Structures
1.
Amino acid sequence: MKYISYNLKNFREIPFFERICSELKFNIEVVGNILPFKVNNYIINKLINWDNTETDPVFLMTFPQKEMLNPEHFQIMSTLLKKNSDSADIRREANKIRMQLNPHPASQIQKNVPELNGKKLWGLQHKYRETVLFFPSRGQTCHAYCSFCFRWPQFVGIRKLRLVMQEVKQLIEYLKTKPDVTDILITGGDPLIMRTVFLKHIIDELLKAKLPNLINIRIGTKALSWWPYRFIDSHDAGDLLRLFRKVNRSGKRLALMTHFNHPKELSTQEVKIAVDRILDTGTIIRSQAPILKNINDSPEIWQKLWTKQVEMGIVPYYMFIARNTGAQRYFALPLVKAWDIYKKAYKNVSGLSRTVRGPIMSTDPGKIQILGPVNIGKEKVLCLQFIQARNPDWVDKLFFAEYNETAIWRNELIPAFGEKNFFYERDSR
Ligand SMILES: *Cc1c(COP(=O)(O)O)cnc(C)c1O
Ligand code: SF4
């Protein structure tokens, strides 16, 4: 299948856009000048219902929506565009607005970059003891530019914020000094944007290094849901599948960490064939997704998503809370609402789907799971726990916040029982 990509510059050429009213197109342009978007012919032809774009979940998460910006920011950009301002002015104003959309939540870049011999390794992140993240420089773009993702700034060229890695060698040198690391997660962007030869180079070097403690090589990708042809008929799909098989035969396990927001993304013949081919190589496929208002905010959708995944051989893994960045105002749900949806869906699926954990906020100290409201004594509080933490001792310890119906992120939570801090804020490592 020929890959045709659309973005702000050419989206009006998408054939179905003849059906879209000019106001909607203008809104896409206004918001799209601030939050990037990208879509391809597979999404357009197979996943979007063009008769019903106002409610179609794939349309809504693909194309910028007016409500993703606050009215003031929308107004500023729309005025500039109506006046036909020159592109330098538009860019300057767009960058100003972007800086107010928390382009780098949880200070990932500065805080988790490891050092080797006194030198910062900029293409690596090491936050949780067992897992190192590797950002190959050729995999830093993406199949989709999701406006709820903390990576959106790197797609609009705020270059300072871009994570880059030149050297798999450095990665291996580092891993040799860290025997606790069992998992390496190759991520981006999307590493499967890379041609197979480049990925093969990275993986071959990792296998050759014979790191005795390394067990899992994970690849984080959106390709399975957004461009399944990557595994079917792209010129190097066969090489990719052979590479997957090679890892699994070497005694390490390859895990594909995929991203499905809605059961629709599991519905095509293409994705089914791709999943079967990947599983045939001995690779395990896991799936994670954020819970998003307007897209997947009902228990029925999650129940269907997890059930369908298990039926196809995919293991449900994480349900995330939309981060405090980008278009959070459009996608965010109150934490207790997300928990309620999670619980209702979880209750109605078989044990094979209950490998999923959520809802989870991925924050600076770690991944915080919302366990829901509980009554302790006379007080109703919100029960939380870390399922991953920068300090491994924090994991699985329950802690409590004041009950709050409207909070959408951790910064709005207050420690319960009159405490000044949460326990991990006292315990600074
Ligand atoms: C989620 C995450 C990982 C992987 O954690 P697992 O629970 O082992 O899947 C690694 N690094 C960062 C920064 C993460 O957010
Ligand atoms: S990394 Fe995943 S969530 Fe982020 S933009 Fe790419 S596909 Fe979307």
2.
Amino acid sequence: MRSQDYDRLYLSPPHLGRHELNYVHKAIEDNWVAPAGPNITGFEADICAAVGVPYCVALTSGTAAIHLGLILLGVGAGDEVLCPSFTFVATANPIVYLGATPVFVDSEADTWNICPVRLREAIVDRLARGKKPKALILVHLYGMPAKLPEILALAKEFDIPVLEDAAEALGSEWEQQPLGGFGRVGVFSFNGNKILTTSGGGALVTYDRALAEKARFLATQAKDEAAHYQHSEVGYNYRLSNILAGIGRGQMELLPERVKRRRQLFDWYREHLAGLPSLTVALASEPAGSRSNRWLTTVLLSSPDPENHAPAPTPEAVRLHLETRNIESRPLWKPLHLQPLFADAPRYGGEVCADLFARGLCLPSGTAMTDGDLRRVKEALTEALE
Ligand SMILES: *Cc1c(COP(=O)(O)O)cnc(C)c1O
């Protein structure tokens, strides 16, 4: 029975504003419904302005952007790419598309992102085995900035180019500088669950004009300059349509207020869930000088207490209880080194993110949530933990 779906609280549903339809309407009126047109140019300019990076290429997905980004960094068959274990599979799949191998690195406990200590260990060990990692993928999970100074210093010391997967971190900042512009290539996602959405879409940003031109070329079937269809290398069909870019333009107008609201939701949860037993709102402190967009609010349940015979609540028990109240919650990303797909991939550490996965849960964090919705989540959590 679907009778209750009208009041289902989703984790992070799309939240449209007032102007998307204007841009889409204009695209249809003007017959610009192809993967070219003024909305694409406008959307790319909006992203450049928001991220403070000169070049942007709008693409069909964040995954496509990672795929092209790795090609731009020269990744090919037989190469190794450093990648956090604690992330969504889309971060690592494009490594495999290229016949390369992901080398997984554990998280640190403060930000949950790639651990600089483990990262150095991984680089030194790969070098000792005779293979220099071709690239490093940096992820800012749940919008929380990774430890950029330490990680970028390592990338520089060992001369490894960085691809910044900022799919979850649009609107997050380090020292007033927006995330996405710290690597040679940066990637955003406009999938339906992200802070802004085009229904499905992505973008690649860079300071390097030649890389941007190459990305645009590869995304349009690598068609050479010629009146006839001439091709010298393999290409892809990865350009965003002008219609979806219209949704993107309307969404980009809303970025500051969407970040503000996600941060308010996080602060509400932190304040109002403080008294609950066995549960803490996670990632409470942002690294000095940084600001998370608080894409999703996450909580951690206490580890089982050997002194106490009462069974510790599991995230799955809590999730199932919220489900009976028609509230969607989700486990944290399952670490990639624990995925059957990557069972054979090399890894450095893994215990930190495995523990987070065992104890964590993502709470509804959509920007259209009301204070009444927040109270509903709190009530259901209280019931689950009693
Ligand atoms: C969503 C996401 C992606 C992929 O983006 P799509 O637009 O869904 O292809 C990549 N990396 C991370 C960390 C993500 O959360």
